[in-house]
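testing teh design pipeline on a random one, pls ignore if ur not involved
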């Protein structure tokens, strides 16, 4: 019978992998999510320029009619639904990793955004929301008179 050297660090490596997987699942970042496994949220980027904020959301496979955008009390909310459409006669899935169902993302918007000047565009599975900033009021300069 051969002697096998015990490596305690091998067990620690496996424990680390398992803990990482557990925390990823709790954070909603599963690598192998199957149909019916919890809510999903599309990935979003928010970019600020001198004149505007641009919110970009990845929404592939979602129809424009299934997306709604609301702005109220400096809160921007994007809601929608990716539907799982199955043709029972043709489809024979062995694995489903895409996430389906309703989603909602909300973002606090700074006070300098003009809520009346918001545009949204949807192209190639990406939603672009442009939030224009208000013109900054410059302080009125008061001249001093000498008597």
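output:
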């Amino acid at each position: 019978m051969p002697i096998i050297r015990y490596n305690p660090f091998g067990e620690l490596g496996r424990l680390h992998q398992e803990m990482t997987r557990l925390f990823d699942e709790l954070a909603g970042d599963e690598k192998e999510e199957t149909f019916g496994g919890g809510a999903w949220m599309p990935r979003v980027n928010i970019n600020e320029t001198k004149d505007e904020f641009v919110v970009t959301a990845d929404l592939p496979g979602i129809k424009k009619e299934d997306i709604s955008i609301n702005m109220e009390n400096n809160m921007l909310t994007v809601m929608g639904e990716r539907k799982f459409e199955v043709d029972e006669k043709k489809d024979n899935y062995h694995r489903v990793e895409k996430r389906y169902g309703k989603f909602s993302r909300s973002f606090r918007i700074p006070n300098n955004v003009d809520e009346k000047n918001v545009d949204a565009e949807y192209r190639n599975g990406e939603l672009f929301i442009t939030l224009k900033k208000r013109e900054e009021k410059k302080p009125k300069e008061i001249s001093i008179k000498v008597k």
